[in-house]
Amino acid sequence: MTTLFDAYDLSGRPLRNRVVMAPMTRARAPGNIPTEDTMRYYAQRASAGLIVTEGTPISPEGNGFVDCPGLWNDAQVSAWRHVTDAVHDAGGTIFTQIWHVGRMSHVSLQPGGGAPVSSTSKQAAHSAAFGYDEAGQPAFVTASTPRALALDEIPRVVGDFANAARRAVDAGFDGVEIHGANGYLVEQFINGAVNDRTDRYGGNTVEHRARFALDVVDACIAAIGRERVGIRLSPFGRLHELGDFDGEADTFLYLARELGARKIAYVHIMDQASRGAPAMPEGFLERFREAYRGTLILAGGLDFDKATQLVERGTIDLAAFGAPYIANPDLVERLRHGWPIAEVDPATYYGGDARGYLDYPHYTGQAAA
């Protein structure tokens, strides 16, 4: 019987267990450069089978959060190398999530104060980026009105993903996870309620909706190899004002088949029911699994029992945990032994110092367990 604690072969890369640290924005990289604290944070959690870092913008244009560590210049690559070396020295495996937020940005974060770019010119008027307020202080601010990418601009953005993938490998990462979820740029093309284009990247057909995502995947494969490329998707997600649309299930099942044909490292599904979205339709995860036969990761609302059941049944291969990993750097051992799971302090999620970042202890009550 397969358990969460069994080793796993990820495209030829051995993982020591099937527990994944999910990507989580922490906003603690001044100037968009990882720090020594970044290194310590990930090294503390290296007992995970796989770490996926916080979203890492591929370009200044792709940034939607103050103090997110990026991957568009040499200084960032050098700083990330200290992080990856520390995780590898601790026996871990680490991918970075490469990210373009699209319309979920603010003019205060954009080069020259320009409009964010997207598949659309429709504003996410009730959603926030973490930019600078009128006083110049970091704050949640309403996402700015975007401009739709011109058709001849799209190859440049696809190229930015590929360049970030190359830089990730140069920085020592084992691979990259393309952020195709949570209402950011890739999903702004996938989602037919947001994507109102009428060209070959438009929202009117399954193939057109999926084209940008698959172009990004193909460019990253060409840059670093299929075994180093994963992608995160959030079927039926509603974050950042995504709406439902005709053919939603068909779109994600089409992506499942296309991604399976490309034999990438993995697909990472984010179940947004844990974030207030409607539940995925009954049986959809199993249908996705049938369409995509590669490594499948699930995040969102998992506890030990649910994750164990899904892995035992073969519905998923790896189980990802987000917030529990903030407060429990030794989460694998806590799950293995049934030790208490510490509660996270949401007030320290974004920005700040080592409090709520490096000061969560490993469990020390083993003798009483």
Automatic annotation (TrEMBL):
Oxidoreductase in keyword set: yes
Transmembrane segments: none
Any one GO cellular component localisation term in the record: cytosol
Matching SUPFAM superfamilies: FMN-linked oxidoreductases (SSF51395)
Pfam families according to UniProt: Oxidored_FMN
Cofactor: FMN
Keywords: Oxidoreductase
Source superkingdom: Bacteria
Residue ranges of domain NADH:flavin oxidoreductase/NADH oxidase N-terminal in the record: 4-339
GO molecular-function terms, A-Z: FMN binding; oxidoreductase activity, acting on the CH-CH group of donors, NAD or NADP as acceptor
Family: Belongs to the NADH:flavin oxidoreductase/NADH oxidase family.
Name under which the protein is recorded: Alkene reductase
Organism annotation: Pararobbsia silviterrae
